[in-house]
Amino acid sequence: MNPIHDNDIDTLLRQSFNGPTTDVGFSDRVMQHVLPRRRRSLWPLAAGILVGTVLCSLSLYNSPLWHAAWHGLRVGEWSSSTIIMLSTMTGMSLLALVWTLAEADDH
Amino acid sequence: MAESAAEARIDQSLVARALLGDDRRAFEQLVRRHQGMVRAQLCRLLHGDEAAADDLAQETFLLAWRKLDQFRSDARFSTWLYRIAYSCFLQMCRTKSWAARNAQDDEMEHLPVPVHAMDLQLDLARAMRHLSVAEQAVLLHCIQLGLSHEEAAYVLAMPLGTVKTHAMRGKAKLKTWLSAWHEAAGEEQTS
Predict the structure, then answer these.
(1) What is the maximal distance between C-alpha atoms in chain B?
(2) What's residue B119's pLDDT?
(3) Residue ranges making up the domain that contains A74
(4) Which domains are present in chain B?
(5) Which chain B residue is nearest to residue A22, measuring alpha carbons?
(6) Which chain A residues are Cβ-neighbours of B40 within 8 angstroms?
(7) Residues 58-97, chain A: which have Cβ within 8 Å of B?
């Protein structure tokens, strides 16, 4: 008896595989269940961004930190409130970017 | 190689047609081109349960239709389908009914192997079932479905190194078991 080699295992495995299954109506059955794809509408995304922006503006409107930061930004002065505001905005943008990338990766 | 590239181009153009005009006939051609191998893959994964394989294959193609816009041409369409099919298979394994049925099969699998099995093909089928699920899946995709290690890693969502290790270990186990049975069969023949 000759010993069994790696190539023999490969050959045996390939030989034991029967190849593609014959259709016998399978494709027709699948196509009966395929429905026209719904177009993804953009309005929920646009509405979400709009509502988020409005709510964010309203909540920050009375904040003294926001006023001081905005004032500092307009006169070109890097006060602590300006730095806090810019850091927060940068942090939130990065968070949104990472989230988007993670979601895209999952799909 | 050239044939495979041409096949990939045909798949890509069919996907583009299916996406652009919501063309169901283009998708039907994709189903007809790939159903055989996807069903064969699932049938192997389900140890020959053709009915369950067909159910999962149908689910695979319906998912592929819904997610067609997520197909990126950096992978072959067939590989993308194998990946969806394998995900459906894993999902099914998590359900109680199939796990219970599979447990019964496992009990059968742990019975001692008769040493005087003469037919090497039968021995191979028996030996394959003694491998771990991951080793079986890697050998199925790499050798029987003809995927590269990289493609198998993509389909099975495993690191490339793990795929190579499973392939090596699986083959080594098969070699050991089949050699032992081969020798036993040889001794029987000479006695």
Answers:
(1) 71
(2) 63
(3) 60-107
(4) 1-98 (1.10.1740.10), 112-191 (1.10.10.10)
(5) B36
(6) 17-21
(7) none
pLDDT digits (tens, 9 = 90+) for A77-93: 888 888 888 898 899 99
Judged by CB atoms closer than 8 Å, whether chains meet at B186 and A17 is answered as: no
B48 shares contact with chain A (CB less than 8 Å): no
Name which of A9, A21, A26 is nearest B174 (Cβ-Cβ). Answer: A9
- Mean pLDDT on B23-39: 94
Q: How far is it, in rounded angstroms, from Cα A95 to Cα A89?
A: 10
Query: Mind telling me how many Å the CA of A92 is from chain B's nearest CA?
Result: 27
For residue B67, the one-letter residue type is K
pLDDT (average), residues A5-33: 88
What percentage of chain B carries pLDDT values higher than 70?
78
Q: Could you give the CA distance from residue B10 to residue B8 in angstroms, rounded to a whole number?
A: 5
- Using a CB–CB cutoff of 8 Å, tell me whether A9 touches chain B: yes
Residue among B181, B48, B183, B170 at smallest CA distance from B113: B181
User: For residue B39, is pLDDT > 50?
Assistant: yes
0.90 exceeded by pTM: no
Which carries the bigger pLDDT value, residue B189 or residue B84?
A: B84
Q: Name B152's Cβ contacts closer than 8 Å, sequence gap at least 6.
A: B138, B141, B142, B158, B163
